[in-house]
Amino acid sequence: MLSQIKGLHHVTSLASSARENNAFFTNVLGLRRVKKTVNFDAPDVYHLYYGDETGSPGTVMTYFPFQNAARGKRGTGEVGTTSFTIPKGSAKAWLDRLATFETANIGQDTRFGETRVLFDGPDGDRFALIEKDDERSPWTGNGISEDMAIRGFHSADMRLRDGGASAELLSFMGYEKLDTEGDVTRFIVPGGNEANVIDIETLPGVQHAGQGAGSVHHIAFAVENRARQLEVREALLDTGWQVTPVIDRDYFWAIYFRTPGGVLFEVATNEPGFDRDEDTAHLGEALKLPSQHEHLRAKLMRHLEPLEG
């Protein structure tokens, strides 16, 4: 069993409009845009990152906004809900705020004794805000007060037709089964970061999802550094998993592998961080390009949709 993985690092999804995506995460949810860059494999598409002040591991939601992309089809084999923590007692304030912005499919429920505010993002992506004691410092620069501001991730909810093999994988990755409620089983990394929960929702009669705007592309798990990442990679390979080589993503190093239920997993390093090419006070302001795409800057500046205005 691995001990290097500490919980979530980031979650990456697809969107259909960069401007609408940016407005939702910064204006409605109050997160900070900590990086404005492009997709390594499709540089004419943004890669936008939102999180706390510095983009700490376990706080960052990222997006590839493919302009006018068709909406994904919800189903199994995907992350169905991405959840953030909010302070206890702030659910009502969030319900009111989301209603003010005419956010879609707002609701409230309780899972494993925790109060959740549920809602959809601009492309039908499903989110939850979960009341929990969380000592992480929130970003309040976008006008949301500290007593209700999002702290970071709580969990990711995997929707699977059969959760058995994925549960075994999570166990190998250092997660422990915590509890079961209905068709949802909760797993947690003891001693991990604050984003150390994965829920598996088993839905044997539900068809496989179709990826598109609003779909989670992958979820990334955090390791301290490259040495710990190589240990994880070697252990996964030794167990028979097909794992990519280490890939430099400028702000972290990444490896990827596909899970039995179809969800794409990444293991990402906490180093070097989002301040490697921007001062903390100005994170997410300038367009930062991977070195191999710097020669495209003038063309991309003309092509990419302005995020504000």
TrEMBL record:
Domain of life, per lineage: Bacteria
Entry EC no(s): 1.13.11.-
The answer to keyword Oxidoreductase applying to this record is: yes
- What InterPro entries does the record point to? cNMP-bd_dom, Extradiol_RC_dioxygenase, Glyas_Bleomycin-R_OHBP_Dase, Glyas_Fos-R_dOase_dom, VOC_core
Which PROSITE patterns does this entry report, sorted A to Z?
CNMP_BINDING_3, VOC
Query: Keywords of this protein's UniProt record, alphabetized?
Result: Dioxygenase, Oxidoreductase
The EC class name is: oxidoreductase
Q: Name one GO molecular function term.
A: dioxygenase activity
Please name the Gene3D superfamilies in this protein's record: 2,3-Dihydroxybiphenyl 1,2-Dioxygenase, domain 1
Residue span(s) of domain Cyclic nucleotide-binding? 77-130
Where does the VOC domain start and stop, copy by copy?
A: 7-132, 152-270
Q: Matching Pfam families, A to Z?
A: Glyoxalase (PF00903)
The entry's protein name is Putative ring-cleaving dioxygenase MhqO
- What organism is listed for this UniProt entry? Flavimaricola marinus
